Amino acid sequence: TDPDEGMNGHVKYSMKEVSDLASEIFHLGLETGAITLVRSLDFEEGDLYELEVQAQDEGTLYDTAKVT
């Protein structure tokens, strides 16, 4: 969340670094930051997935987090 008012309080989310496989499996809500599955996980395809998610307000402030 961003405590600023107006446009600087509006946060948008994006995936900065994601593997091709993970991009086929996970969906990131651009407005909510919610990460959901597009399809079921398959242990034979991979047992670990890493996504780098960035949150940025309408100004210049942003931060990133690694989701494993």
Automatic annotation (TrEMBL):
Alphabetical GO biological process terms: homophilic cell adhesion via plasma membrane adhesion molecules
Signal peptide, first to last residue: none
Subcellular location(s) of the protein: Membrane
GO cellular component: plasma membrane
Domain Cadherin: start-end pairs: 1-59
Principal subcellular localisation of the protein: membrane
Taxonomy, superkingdom: Eukaryota
GO terms of molecular function: calcium ion binding
Assigned keywords, A-Z: Calcium, Glycoprotein, Membrane, Transmembrane, Transmembrane helix
Transmembrane region(s): none
Gene3D superfamilies cross-referenced by the UniProt entry: Cadherins
Pfam families per the UniProt record, alphabetical: Cadherin (PF00028)
CDD domains xref list: Cadherin_repeat (cd11304)
Membrane-topology annotation of the record: Single-pass membrane protein
Matches recorded under PANTHER family: CADHERIN-87A, PROTOCADHERIN GAMMA-A3
This protein's name: PCDGB protein
Organism the protein comes from: Brachypteracias leptosomus (short-legged ground-roller)
Gene designation per UniProt: Pcdhga11_0
